[in-house]
Amino acid sequence: MRFSVATGTDAGFPEREMARGERGSGRGRLCGPLLVWALGLAFLLGACAPAEPEKPEIPRKGISGILGRAEIKQDRLTTWAEDSRILVTWSHKTEVASYTLFWADTHEEAESGGTAIEGLTKARFEHKELENGKTYYYRVQGFTKAGKPVGTYPVVGDIPYQYETRRFPGFMAVTPRVHDTFASLAERYLKDPAKDWMIREFNDLTSVTPFRVVMIPLESYEPGSLTREGYRTVPILAYHNISRIKASRMSVLATEFERQMAYLRQNRFQVITLRQFVDFLEFKGQVPEKAVVITFDDGWRSTYEIALPVLKRYGYPATLFVYTDLVGSGRKALSWAQVRSIEKSGVIDVQCHTKSHRNLQMQPGEDMTGYFKALVQEMKDSRELLRSKTGKNCTYLAYPYGAYNHLVTALAEEIGYRAAFTVRRGSNPFFVSNYRVLRSLVFGEDDLETFAAGLMTYDDKVVK
User: Fold this and answer.
1) I want to staple 64 with a disulfide (CB 3.0 to 4.6 A). Which of 48, 78, 100, 355 is the partner?
2) How many CB atoms lie within 10 A of CB 38?
3) Residue among 418, 170, 437, 456 at smallest CA distance from 279
4) Is beta strand 230-232 parallel, antiparallel or unpaired with respect to 226-227?
5) Could you write out the three-class secondary structure of 123-146?
């Protein structure tokens, strides 16, 4: 059964398959109470929303990619359309004494001439009393006191319209503007452009269509990412060393690491933080359909020199689990200055990997009193040292060699760790224990096919 809602003239919600969803997709999510709200929304918006322009001429040239009223870049002309008016703004040049704004009905006319509004001293102009649904194009020329032309601003087009925003329990219904993207809508309504995936998945869309109503989820709408088809899982990748020269079992070649990060991008995986992942476990938030977490263990210098620049380039967050005895111990290890620099980068989050990297299980010949004292030193004292060196309170722990027992997990929770991580291979559903989280080691001999095989983001075996 297909279900679609229309508002105004041909403007409506994207079609949703309500009875049967695609595996791992957003389809089939809205049911029960939310379906009732969606039906009510259809009637409300149908009654009060303005008609969509019949055949809006969406500008194909010179469109400025903006996030709402985002900061204007140098030599950029931007627009913000409202009901019957368009605000035009541009970057100011110190040598300019006045500006002339040209506007026209076509891109070509605005580029070659158009109607001139002269003598503007501010880098903005509000064009009023416009016809809704009609496209307007703008160009600006600056002049010095001597009348010499200075700077050029590319032509930008926009469409005034009665952009509606309606709020309902759990979501909003908004009318996107010409320049809107999922990121701009997330920036405007969720205060975080990185949450663009929530809007895309909630609406089952691949792109934003101007004037077609989009629903903005204001809260988690899929607790635990559990659907009638199965449940979402989150793989966590665990790296150790990165080498520019030679790969080994625990050292991935730098070129391969770059290929793996590119694979995530090309296949639309979304790298999330450890905090987002643990929020997912605790039903405090949801994660994208193809979420993945990146971690590094130990504290090798290659994390700073090789991995960090690559992660910055891709915009991927990661976590580094450091064991404190390694820091400053040699030329291949990180220094404390580098650990602090990594933490301040905003890209890699530094967390705890114990003091000496000893196996946390009880060893032969070890008495219980000595064992317990050693565990406290490994998990608590190292955490306090990291706090004194970096100023942060570590909330996540990676077990050396992935080894643990019931005492270790209980003590980790008692000390104040929010979650702890093994190296048991697998992908994590929402019901995995916070203190037995799975991570898949990435080995130097792994090819891209092996790497991809560890990225399972959905499991349907429970319902088969």
Assistant:
1) 78
2) 20
3) 418
4) antiparallel
5) CEEEECCCCCCCCEEEEEEEECCC
Q: How far is CA 262 from the centre of its chain?
A: 16
Whole-Å CA distances, 149 to 79, 97, 113, 122, 139:
22, 10, 15, 16, 13
Residue in the structure block whose two tokens are 């296949």 = 267
| Residue keyed to tokens 């629903």 | 215
3-class secondary structure per residue, 336-355 = HHHHHHHHHCCCEEEEECCC
* CATH top class, domain 225-463: alpha beta
DSSP collapsed to 3 states, 249-275: CCEEEHHHHHHHHHHHHHCCCEECCHH
Pair of tokens at residue 389? 């060196």
Segment among 40-49, 148-157, 324-333 with least mean pLDDT: 40-49
Single pTM value for the model: 0.72
The set of residues, in sequence order, having a beta carbon less than 8 Å from that of 353 and lying 6+ positions away, is 297, 298, 299, 321, 322, 323, 382, 397, 398, 400
- Counting every residue written for the chain, the total comes to 464
Question: What is the rounded distance in angstroms from the CA atom of residue 18 to the CA atom of residue 41?
Answer: 16
pLDDT (0 to 100) of residue 94: 82
Domain chopping of the chain, boundaries: 2-53+161-221, 77-158, 225-463
- Tokens 């040598």 correspond to 95
Residues 6+ apart with CB under 8 A from 211: 11, 52, 53, 56, 161, 175, 176
**Residue partners of 303: CB distance under 8 A and separation at least 6:** 242, 296, 320, 334, 342, 348
What's the CATH number for 77-158?
2.60.40.10
Taking CB atoms within 8 Å and a gap of at least 24, the contacts of 251-259 are 251/444, 252/442, 252/443, 252/444, 252/446, 253/444, 254/302, 254/306, 256/444, 256/446, 256/448, 257/306, 257/307, 257/310, 258/310, 259/448
Say how far apart CA 200 and CA 217 lie, in whole Å.
10
How many Å apart are CA 216 and CA 190, to the nearest integer?
8
Strands 136-143 and 124-127, by their bridges, are: unpaired
Residues of the chain above pLDDT 70, percent: 81
Task: Work out the angle between the directed axes of helices 336-344 and 382-390 (0-180°, nearest 10).
Answer: 70
- Residue spans of beta strands (DSSP E) within 299-417: 318-322, 348-352, 396-398
